[in-house]
Amino acid sequence: MIPLYARRRAVNLFASSLMFAATCIGLFFLAWILWTTLKLGMTAMHWDLFLKDTPAPGNGGYGLRNAFVGSLILMGIALLIGVPVGLMAGTWLAEYGGRSRMANLVRFVNDIMLSAPSIEIGLFTYAIMVDPMGHFSAISGGVALSILMIPIIVRTTDEMLKLVGGEMREAAIALGAPMWKVITHITWKGARAGILTGILISLARISGETAPLLFTALNNQFFSTKLGAPIANLPVVIFQFAMSPYENWQQMAWAGAFVAIVFILTISVCSRLILQSAVKRS
Predict the structure, then answer these.
(1) What's the pLDDT score for residue 250?
(2) Structural domain total, the chain
(3) Which of 40, 156, 167, 209 could cross-link to 254 by cystine, CB 3.0-4.6 Å?
(4) Closest CA to 142 of 221, 234, 216
(5) CB 111: neighbour CB atoms within 10 A?
(6) C-alpha angle 89/195/138, rounded to 5°?
(7) Are residues 33 and 128 in the same domain?
(8) Full residue range of the structural domain in which residue 217 is found
(9) Dist. CA 23–CA 17, nearest whole Å
(10) What are phi and psi for residue 175, nearest 5 degrees?
(11) Do 166 and 116 reside in the same domain of the chain?
(12) Each residue's pLDDT tens digit, 161-187
């Protein structure tokens, strides 16, 4: 009979081997995707990509300016809506809700929203905004993206505020500071690095979303900044150009994917650096 200790070591070695193999497989495909995007995207980069709008089919033009500007507008709308709502909701959970039934229910629903498919968020926004309005618009696209941002910001804000020591709150209250001042001057300040990291992570999360925008902002071949009309955006343009039979459109799709990956990687690295600097200071 195999001794218990030897059996445990064997099981541990087997589980560790499976985890290592799974990690290697995941890293292999990640490296493959990144390398393919970088190789094909960098060769397709050109200044006209940022200076000219998307060309008509078959004319050999080159440009994604309207898509870049449209994506920035959509992300700006999402930030204006998602950051205040997520920050306030997360603050209520940490500072007022505590472990009450209502707070636990909100956390449970928020966790469900974290894993909700983005296409369902697009359908929901279509039903409450696009269908009543009768047309696609940048506003509805920004709202759909903000709904994807809010659960991440809520969860991050809630967790980061819990890490702020209770002694700081008690000291401020003992000095006669009202609760709103304790939150804005003590807890938010103490957790600002973590909250900012959550906002950056949520921004990286929405920057490559395509499905919600197909139901809300749709697309626009021309340059437009009208919030009440369909607007061009990089994810949908990449989706459409990648499936096209035109070689210049396919090259622009790879170039757009390269720009999107660089943007997401930059945001991810910045968020990690901010969090690490905050940990070192503490």
Answers:
(1) 94
(2) 2
(3) 40
(4) 216
(5) 12
(6) 70
(7) no
(8) 49-281
(9) 10
(10) -85, 0
(11) yes
(12) 998 888 888 888 888 888 989 999 889
